[in-house]
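Bit of a strange request maybe. I'm writing a small parser for structure token strings and I need a real example to test against, not something I typed by hand. Could someone generate the tokens for this chain?
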Amino acid sequence: MRLPLRVTSWARAKWDDIEAARQSGSEAVHISFPVSALYLQLMERSYEWVQEQLSELIGKAKDYFEFVSVGAQDATRADIELLSRFVCDASAAGAQRIRLADTVGIATPISVMHLIGELQRVTSVDLEFHAHNDLGMATANAFTALAVGCQAVSVSVTGLGERAGNAALEELAIALKLSGEFEATIKTEMLSSLCETVSKAA
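Reply from user aminoacidic:
Good idea to test on real output. This should exercise your parser:
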């Protein structure tokens, strides 16, 4: 039985990574780019390099994948003007979704609301929010992102992974259901069993 999902490979902004994703048989690829001043400095890159790679890599990736998304790494610490340029450049290059990563988990629901609002002024491309849980606000930030218009958020079962964890699937699913604002298709009665299985495996 085929599950109703799309397998996506994560890639750095390097053709070798994208080629490995193609060889894996993934239907989609997500390409991550540094956008904050700190991450650009750490990776010894300029924004001009990011612009060039967006155009080159997205164009080539679309020949092999049915869905290509790009990530703005450390987006919540990026200069909003540069981040807006990134979103516009990624959209122009053909990205079908742009993921905004709260890489070090510093966002709050209010800052997420403002960030998404600013970017919605400059693009109509689908946005995704990727929350980290360093300050215990990943689920709240993911919920806020959806509430203000993001089309997707990143989640993991029990919030497992990436340092302090990500937004927990089971928390967000229940929050969305109880809010009465979203049409949920997740079978929430199965969440307890799912979390137990993942916890035991971990």
